[in-house]
Design a protein that fits this description.
heterodimer, A: alpha+beta, 3 domains, eight-stranded mixed beta sheet, elongated, B: mainly alpha, 18 helices, globular
């Protein structure tokens, strides 16, 4: 400022701005007198209470204060900062305050914990971008945070008592401002009230976007979607969820329950189909318990503020006309879709269980023995009973069995079926009803047990079972006994009795329909009429 | 401008392209039509599933567990590029109906469709190969019908029944001929599109030897040799056949391309990978004759001929030349474990040395040294680091 200009400024002017800020007073010499002093390297004593140098020598208080004129500025700062750093670091101590100046203008102050000057540098840079100012301090007095003009920060030599009703005071180079606190704004409330923004269409869809997706499917479409995913071999898990807090005043026609399908990777073609299908909404995971509708994005990076979200809940951010947040009780417990594919159940068909009544005498005391399914693992597979209608399968099987299996088996052909027994386990034979040994020589079907559970020796006595005899309980019909002498080695029986069937080999090689051949269809005289290449578009 | 639906295009053109049969070629597909096809693609489930299943069957000949092949927009554009190229050979697209500028427009459109991004993803490469594996086998059945007063030729078109009536009285004669790939795709501009398509599917290029395929650039395809399963399939496919010429034709093509690769400035690891692959093929040929004693009739026939095919000398000289550069490169790892094969391999090497002469082998070794000498890879004793992983098979 030149001498002429300085003389034009009358000293009688009130040095206050329109919003009540106390402005810097021009000196009689014509040079500006700043209200702050620049901190020098190594300076350790400060006039402002609560300010101390950090390891880099930058003057830093316990908190950082970001002054923004409007709520939009606060949201813009949060948006910028969350895209660059984690909000989780500053959220525990963060306060969003609505304040009023002495001239009754309203502003918003964002107080964050100044853990390091690096964090404050990032915060200040974001604040400058959105038109805010950054201060630092500990209690009531906050001085301007460092900038290019003073790399080590500022100190205020004129610390005064706060006016009545003021909550804190900010000291800048050219003004000092006191603020009265009107109230606080919860970050969580702010987060859940912001609407999602539509993403540019060019970013949709890509291979990266097709990973880790959630599908929200109306109940009526559930079977079709599950079948479609299963048929296309897409790994997915599904569950039924109900958003919490729904009431009768919710939007008419809004479903109270829906299917939630989590897919690890979705082919691009299927993703496009789902995006364009009504009743199916695609969400992209933004953390362990947050998902945002595909095509939309939250203004604040949700992944950077994971602590806001209750880990026991799942949050679905809807974009577009829905514009809501569904909170679902979590964590999500989903089941694999392969277990949910369509079943055909014939309830009128025959009962698959086999009941065997041993004693039909009208004795009021004794109970009938019967076979009942059991979940206990089979003890030892001793043999298999092949029904008569499957006897031919045994002939074929003989060709496939290894020599050791052939040697270890004995066979008896009865009117109840072909009985194969072995000393070794023969559960590799895939036909017939496998028989396990309940007691020596007493065989029952695998997976079943005799009820009531009497002692095996008592049962053997009752049945007249003894040495050299096998007693078999088939799945259907009454039990029968057969002497050990009736059994012959399977090898001998196979060679002597069983017929050899000729097996034809089948070629598994792929054979196409020959070379492709061009078949020219009629195209008319004007096939190229209106033809547009990509450069014409 | 084509007006058919996406499902019809998939059913009548793309499916026959994969499985064989009649590929119906109509009016060229322009950019707006293809965009419409892209929109309809998710709704054409029936032909899509048929194509995907056919492609998996094709791949089952190469790999044990084919990846799921889901036809996407990229595949659709590649198929559309092939369709537009075939339109250029359409009989209705000649003469006054097809000016040079219009032809250039169709070629440019095909070129833009073929300009998909290059990929090294195994799934995508296999899927592209399954789509285009028949491209060099595409042909056309031409029928020439002549009668007592004239004749007519039908290029890939049905013959009207009226022309063949009263065949005895009118002395109708019918000649059928097949137009091969090379005649269908003529012209420099078309060749550039074919080259672009081939570069998008290097596996097809490697597997389609000597059928009018563009020249092989190993730099584009060498990464395939680092996949043991694909390299194994390539090796067995390249020497299959019973005739002497059949067994050596593809390896000679590979070696000829290797020759040209050495004249450029390839990465040393790539040179060693291709070299190891050629040496492995030599070893497989020796394995075929492991039951024989004495000199190899195959080598005597091929190398004793007065005129050798291009690349044959380089192919058979590769093990000897590699041995001059570094002993460890001369034979596939694990060869010494099989004494019979080792003996047969040594017999082959001696016979090649006497038939080719030391100067040929030394010349190749000198060229190899330019790329490999002083390289750290020669110090490595791990054979699995490079393309010789295929030799595990």
């Amino acid at each position: 400022m030149t001498d002429e200009q300085s003389t034009e400024v009358p000293h009688s002017l009130e040095f206050a701005s329109s919003d009540g800020r106390l402005l810097a007073e021009p000196s009689p010499s014509g040079y500006d007198v700043f209200m702050l002093e620049q901190v020098s390297l190594g300076q350790s004593r400060f006039m402002t209470p609560g300010i101390a140098p950090d390891p880099r020598g930058v003057a830093l208080g316990r908190y950082g204060l970001i002054q923004l004129p409007t709520l939009e500025g606060v949201v813009s700062w949060l948006r910028l900062y969350s895209a660059e750093a984690s909000l989780d670091e500053i959220l525990p101590a963060m306060q969003i305050m609505r304040v009023r100046t002495p001239l009754q203008s309203r502003e918003l102050l964002l107080r964050i914990s100044a853990t390091s000057s690096y964090l404050m540098d990032a915060a200040a840079r974001c604040a400058r971008l959105v038109g805010g100012s950054t201060f630092t301090g500990t209690g009531k007095h906050f001085v301007k945070y460092r900038d290019e003009r003073s790399p080590y920060g500022y100190d205020s030599p004129e610390i005064q008592a706060l006016p009545a009703g003021a909550h804190l005071m900010a000291h800048s180079e050219d003004f000092t401002q006191s603020y009265a606190k009107e109230g606080e704004l919860s970050f969580e409330k702010l987060l859940f009230r912001l609407s999602l923004k539509r993403e540019p269409a060019a970013t949709l869809p890509s291979e990266e976007l097709a990973k880790d997706l959630l599908l929200v499917v109306e109940r009526g479409l559930g079977d079709g979607v599950i079948r479609y995913l299963w048929r296309n071999r897409v790994q997915a898990n599904v569950g039924v969820v109900r958003p919490q807090g729904q009431s009768t005043f919710d939007a008419l026609g809004r479903a109270t329950q829906f299917l939630m399908v989590r897919v690890a990777e979705l082919p691009e073609r299927i993703l496009e189909l789902f995006v364009s299908t009504p009743g199916i909404d695609v969400f992209r995971s933004k953390g362990s318990n947050v998902a945002v509708q595909l095509g939309y994005t939250h203004v604040i990076d949700l992944a950077s503020c994971g602590t806001v979200f209750d880990s026991a809940r799942f949050y679905l951010f809807w974009g577009g006309q829905a514009d809501r947040v569904d909170v679902v009780a979590g964590p999500l417990e989903l089941s694999a879709i392969e277990h949910l594919t369509h079943l055909e159940i014939d309830i009128e068909g025959p009962d698959k269980r086999s009941n065997l009544v041993l004693d039909k005498a009208s004795d009021p005391v004794s109970v009938s023995m019967r076979l009942a399914p059991t979940i206990k693992p089979p003890t030892r597979v001793m043999g298999t009973l092949v029904p008569p209608e499957q006897a031919a399968w045994v002939k074929r099987l003989v060709y496939l069995l290894p020599p050791s299996v052939l040697r270890g088996h004995r066979i008896a052909v009865t009117d109840r079926g072909v009985l194969l027994v072995s000393e070794a386990e023969i559960d590799t034979i895939p036909i017939g009803n496998l028989l396990v040994e309940l007691a020596a020589g007493l065989l029952i079907p695998a997976g079943m047990e005799l009820v009531p559970r009497v002692a095996p020796d008592v049962l053997a006595t009752t049945l007249g079972h003894g040495a050299g005899v096998l007693t078999i309980f088939p799945p259907n019909g009454s039990p029968f006994q057969i002497g050990e002498a009736s059994f012959v080695p399977l090898e001998r029986r196979a060679i002597a009795k069983l017929d050899v069937e000729e097996v034809t080999s089948v070629s598994m090689a792929y054979e196409g329909m020959g070379d492709p051949s061009v078949a020219n269809d009629p195209v008319g005289r004007f096939a190229l009429w209106g033809f547009q290449s990509e450069s014409d578009k | 401008m084509a007006t058919a639906s996406c499902a019809e295009f998939l059913e009548t053109f793309v499916l026959p392209l994969v499985v064989g049969g009649d590929m119906h070629v109509g009016a060229p597909i322009d950019a707006p039509t293809l965009e419409a096809f892209e929109q309809q693609l998710p709704h054409a489930s029936v032909p899509l599933v048929a194509i995907d299943e056919a492609r998996e069957k094709v791949l089952s000949q190469l790999v044990v567990k084919p990846p799921p092949c889901l036809l996407d927009v990229d595949d659709l554009k590649l198929a559309a590029a092939v369709h537009n190229l075939l339109f250029l050979a359409h009989p209705d697209a000649h003469g006054w109906k097809m000016s040079e500028s219009r032809r250039a427009k169709v070629v440019a459109c095909a070129q833009s469709f073929a300009a998909r991004s290059h990929t090294v993803s195994r799934r995508r490469l296999l899927a592209r190969h399954a789509l285009l594996h028949n491209i060099f086998d595409i042909g056309r059945r031409d029928i020439k019908v002549s009668w007592w007063t004239g004749s007519a030729t039908f290029e890939g078109q049905p013959v009207p029944p009226r022309l063949t009536r009263w065949s005895d009285v009118r002395r109708v004669h019918r000649d059928e001929s097949r137009v091969a790939f090379g005649e269908l795709f003529q012209g420099v501009d078309v060749a550039s599109v074919i080259a672009a398509l081939s570069r998008r599917s290097p596996l097809t290029l490697l597997l389609s030897s000597g059928r009018g395929a563009p020249h092989l650039h190993w730099e584009d395809a060498v990464f395939l040799l680092r996949d043991a399963e694909i390299a194994r399939a390539l090796a067995y496919r390249s020497i299959e056949g019973t005739g002497v010429d059949q067994q050596v034709k593809t390896p000679a093509r590979y070696a000829a391309s290797f020759d040209q690769m050495l004249e450029r400035a390839p990465v040393a690891a790539d040179v060693r990978t291709v070299l190891a692959f050629l040496i492995y093929l030599n070893c497989l040929l020796a394995l075929k004759e492991s039951h024989q004693m004495g000199e190899s009739p195959l080598l005597a026939t091929i190398l004793g001929a007065s005129q050798r095919a291009r690349g044959v000398a380089t192919f058979f000289a590769a093990p000897g030349a590699a041995g001059l550069v570094d002993d460890r490169l001369a034979a596939p790892p694990g060869l010494l474990a099989d004494a019979v094969l080792t003996r047969r391999y040594d017999v082959h090497r001696r016979q090649v040395s006497s038939l080719l002469g030391a100067s040929v082998i030394e010349g190749l070794a000198e060229r190899l040294r330019r790329h490999l000498a002083g390289n750290d890879m020669l110090e490595s004793s791990e054979p699995q680091e490079d393309g010789s992983s295929s030799s595990e098979s």
